[in-house]
Amino acid sequence: MPRQPSAQNLVDQPRLFPASRRGWLTWAGTSAMASLLPGCGGSSTASPTLTTTIAWGRKEIREAMQSSKMRAASVALLHNDHIVWQEAFGALDANATTPATPDTRFNVGSVSKVLAALAIMVLVDRRLVQLDAPVVAYLPQFAMLSPGYRDITVRHLLSHASGLPGTYLHNMFAFAPLPGYAAEVEAAMANVHLKHAPGAMAVYCNDGFTLIERIVLAVTGQTYPAFVQSALLNPLGMARSGYTLQPLPPGSFAPGSISDAPQGQEFVMGYATGGLCTTPGDMMKLAAMLIQGGEHDGQRIVSKTSVAEMGRIQNQGMHPSLTPDWQSGLGWDSARHPGLNAVGVLAWQKSGGTMFYSSDFCVLPQAGMAVMITGNAASFKPGPIAEGIALRALQETGQLRVLPPRVSTAAPAMATASSSAVDALLGIYGNYSAPIKAVSPDRQQVDLWSWNPKLQDWKNLSTGLRLRSDGWWWSDAQPGTHYRWEQSEGRRYLLAREAATAGHYWITVPIGQQMPPAPGPLAAPWTARLDSTWLLTNEAPTSIPLAIGVGASRLRELPELPGYLFWDESQFLLPLSADRAGMTVQVPLNAGRDLVELVVQTRDKEEWLHAAGWIYRRQA
Questions:
Q1: 552 by DSSP, 3-state: which?
Q2: Is 581 domain-assigned?
Q3: Considering the domain boundaries, does residue 433 fall inside one?
Q4: What is the pTM of this model?
Q5: 3-state SS of 584-620?
Q6: If we measure between CA atoms, which residue out of 377, 17, 24, 25 comes closest to residue 206?
Q7: Which of 429, 517, 580, 605 makes a 20 to 30 Å CA pair with 6?
Q8: Which domain, by its residues, includes 587?
Q9: Are 558 and 566 in contact (CB under 8 A)?
Q10: 257 CB contacts (<8 Å, ≥6 apart)?
């Protein structure tokens, strides 16, 4: 599902056709896409002053289409209230008989969250919602097993700080509309715990935005898609934008592919978290309104104060040492895009992905500029291209003197760590997708290994790491990524750092939390379930995860971490009772997202397992 942020994932090595929840949720689709269809379709508008930027952008998009095997892509660039570049690339079918045009629609995944935040800010302006009011003030029926749920505020939902588990999976993506998703998510929260106290940290969370749909319905009487249509899309003239409520005409959208075969329309049932279907040109109308402080053609859409609040940093004071490069807003991944912030330019940015699409949306409010790129491949990485276009446009318009120099990647001098300090770093580090093992051959060097589900074993992540004078651990053999360990609130975290694609700044992300020894051995009911395979039973026949091969998950215990349940080759859980196992990691930003709580139910003397909305039957 939608991804955040737009930095490279430093751990996951997903399968081409994931056979489990871990695989498809990590990848948000399949990476085996159709071959490149060269050339561009539709129209293009160029400003004479931005010809260099546009030429660079075209080259990068075409190269990305080839490397990701993407059939179609689309881009728009706004400067001084005018779209100076709008162009579509590729075609909509395998035979290249239907070229993509600037009017071709794409699902933009989590870019939809910007609309969700805007919808709430409109309601704040109308005095129907308060950002810091508890969610239960609007949804009195909302409940969870953890008493702290009463402390979740609307702001927490919009800033990923709610503590909700992550992503409810049941019937989220399908080839046909499946109504009722948001109501089902709200009801399902009554049977799970929080993964952290509300407001304690910001961990990417789709479920929080799904609850926004329920709040909009409660205070307006309108469904979320209807309210966004009337309050935002219609006033802005975004005629080619909306939610996947019914089939679009053939040829009006760019379809995704499985094994080189174009598929039908992708329907995303989480409208607020990832359901917007739009064009880059339409998104420039939204961007222009934000740049103008909430006005469009002289009409006030949302207050200037509300636009500014969306762009205000929300995660200050939440594990600041672990996420120094990411300063999120309301709906925005970055209220200060790190690459543009590094050159002194304010930018708000949001990335998004679905099973078949990847997108990036960036607004530079003070520079009067915005860019949107989207394409129909989950493996497409539009963020670095959007950043590069923005930097070059700033230079061509005289707002940036020169492109920034690359950071130095020369290894600093060696430092010495005590043997006891190295010993403290070793062990297993948990996250949402692939645990990491830290070992040392000599109590000076550290080697990192990541769990590989396909191999059913540990795979080298980085070996030969040694402490350097800058406080990071570098490997001479694998110098691209550096690592560091930090303590926060009694937990030890593993952080990774890389030079971002643009090369002029570092990106640091926490990638795992050290797992303490289990409180004791697994009890008999859970021991009896070890080394079992569970088959997914409750997805609709039109489910996209079923179409790409999701169907089975495994429950086991890793020898390196006894006493923990290892679910779906990805997450560690601890039993809470004979029939419930709970979440164990609290990692900010992205590595702690999409956690599950396992609940075993017995029907006719047969056990069924519930996990994040999916129901499994034990394989005989």
A1: strand
A2: yes
A3: yes
A4: 0.93
A5: CCCCCECCCCCCCCEEEEEECCEEEEEECCEEEEECC
A6: 25
A7: 429
A8: 524-618
A9: yes
A10: 30, 32, 33, 34, 71, 263, 356, 376, 377
3-state secondary structure 337-358: CHHHHCCCCCCEEEEEECCCCE
Q: What are the beta bridge partners of residue 452?
A: 457
Last residue of a domain, one of 453, 484, 514: 514
- CB 320: neighbour CB atoms within 10 A? 12
Burial of 325 (0-12, 13-18, 19+ CB in 10 A): buried
Q: How far apart are CA 530 and CA 567, in angstroms?
A: 10
Which residue matches tokens 């043997």? 419
Amino acid at site 13: Q
The answer as to whether 154 is a domain residue is: no
Query: How many domains does one find in the chain?
Result: 2
Residue 528 and residue 566 in one domain: yes
d(CA 570, CA 434): 5
* Beta carbons of 580 and 602 less than 8 angstroms apart: no
Tokens, residue 340:
């543009």
Q: Give per-residue pLDDT as tens, 483-538.
A: 999 999 899 999 999 998 889 999 999 999 999 999 999 999 999 999 999 999 99
Q: Over the stretch 16-35, which tens digit does the pLDDT of each residue have?
A: 233 455 554 543 432 222 22
Give backbone dihedrals phi and psi of 221, rounded to 5 degrees, phi first.
80, 0
Are 427 and 502 contained in the same domain? yes
DSSP label of 522:
P
Q: Within a 13 Å sphere around the CA of 450, how many CA atoms are in the beta-carbon half?
A: 18
Cross-strand bridge partners of residue 554: 533
- Can you tell me the distance from the alpha carbon of 398 to that of 394, in angstroms, rounded to the nearest whole number? 6
